[in-house]
Amino acid sequence: MMKRRLFAAAFSAAVVSFWIAPAAAQVTTGTIVGTVTDSNGVVPGANVVIHEVNKGTSETVVTDATGGYTAPFLTPGTYRIEVNVSGFKKWVRDGVILQVNQRARVDATLEVGRLEETTTVVASAPLLRSGPSAERLCTTLMESTLDGLASTTEAQNG
């Protein structure tokens, strides 16, 4: 009887740990990435300031040799992206909405000018969603399409 209780307790602990472990590993942040360019190509060394509008916080990252930047581990929310580099107008994009586990791409094309001048992106294409969830969506859509084609072919040949 004691062995049975001990086994039941161990089994219950194992089951609970299987439920808790995935919950602890869930992602609760997102990432903003992009490339900064001008009319001649990429712009390394640009300061990219990521402002979280609702909380009033900001983080600055610098573009690498390929003009790319990554701002990981951002809380979901609405962001304002500013790009500053000497010899160019300041570039601004408001209203970037970041969701959990999203990898939002915000590319900037700079114009020659003074930092006191600003290029503001008002209307832009929706952010590209990439990463595992987008891949699952594409796979699901492709499987649905193929299943539909198979059903149509069977009906025509049937």
Which helices and strands, and how do they pair?
Blueprint: H1 2-24, E1 30-38, E2 41-42, E3 47-52, E4 57-62, E5 68-74, E6 77-84, E7 90-98, E8 103-105, E9 108-109, E10 118-121, E11 129-130, H2 132-157
Parallel strand pairs: 1-8, 1-9, 7-10
Antiparallel strand pairs: 1-2, 1-5, 3-4, 3-6, 6-7, 8-11
What does this structure look like?
This protein is of the alpha/beta class and 158 residues long. The protein has a domain at 30-136: Sandwich (Immunoglobulin-like), CATH 2.60.40.1120. It contains 2 helices and 11 strands, in the order αβββββββββββα. It has helices spanning 2-24, 132-157; strands spanning 30-38, 41-42, 47-52, 57-62, 68-74, 77-84, 90-98, 103-105, 108-109, 118-121, 129-130. The strands form 2 sheets. Strands 1, 2, 5, 8, 9 and 11 form a 6-stranded mixed β-sheet that branches. Strands 4-3-6-7-10 form a 5-stranded mixed β-sheet, with no helix packed on it. A hairpin with a 4-residue loop joins strand 3 (47-52) and strand 4 (57-62). The longest helix is centred in the C-terminal third of the chain and has 26 residues, at 132-157. It is elongated and about 80 Å long. The N and C termini lie far apart (63 Å). Mean pLDDT is 79; it is low at 137-142.
CATH architecture of the domain at 30-136: Sandwich
Rounded mean pLDDT score = 79
Shape descriptor: elongated
Give the structural class.
alpha/beta
Query: How many angstroms does the end-to-end distance come to?
Result: 63 Å
CATH top level class name of the domain at 30-136: Mainly Beta
Major sheet attributes: 6 strands, mixed
Name the CATH superfamily assignment of the domain at 30-136.
Carboxypeptidase-like, regulatory domain
Per DSSP E runs of 2 or more residues, the count of β-strands stands at: 11
What's the number of helices? 2
> What is the radius of gyration?
24 Å
CATH topology of the domain at 30-136: Immunoglobulin-like
